[in-house]
């Protein structure tokens, strides 16, 4: 069982790391017109949202595995 937990923890770490890297990359790029709330979203915003969704899905899968493991021990 600890093998499964270690695998889930590793997936969580990879998802979080990937999101952190993408966030740093996007924040490092110069931006123009950030104060316009009604401006169309840039490709960077779209990329950041996609990275966040991927990380969220990975976290959801890992959490579900952990719930399954905990449920099987009860």
> What Rg do the Cα atoms give?
17 Å
Judged by helices, strands and strand pairing, the structural class is mainly alpha
List segments where confidence is low: pLDDT < 50 over at least 5 consecutive residues: none
Largest sheet: none
**Could you tell me the number of beta strands?**
0
Helix content: over 70%
Coarse morphology: elongated
Provide the fold topology:
Blueprint: H1 2-28, H2 43-73
Helix pairs in contact: 1-2
What would you say this structure looks like, in words?
The chain has two helices and no strands. Helix 1 runs antiparallel to helix 2 (43-73). The radius of gyration is 17 Å and the shape is elongated. The model has no long low-confidence stretch (mean pLDDT 76). The protein is mainly alpha-helical and 74 residues long. It has helices spanning 2-28, 43-73.
């Amino acid at each position: 069982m600890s093998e499964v937990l270690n695998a889930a923890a590793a997936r969580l770490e990879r998802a979080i790391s990937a999101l952190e890297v993408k966030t740093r990359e996007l924040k490092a790029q110069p931006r123009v017109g950030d104060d316009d709330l009604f401006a169309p979203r840039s490709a960077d915003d779209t990329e950041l949202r996609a990275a966040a969704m991927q990380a969220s899905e990975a976290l959801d899968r890992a959490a579900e595995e952990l719930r399954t493991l905990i449920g099987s021990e009860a």
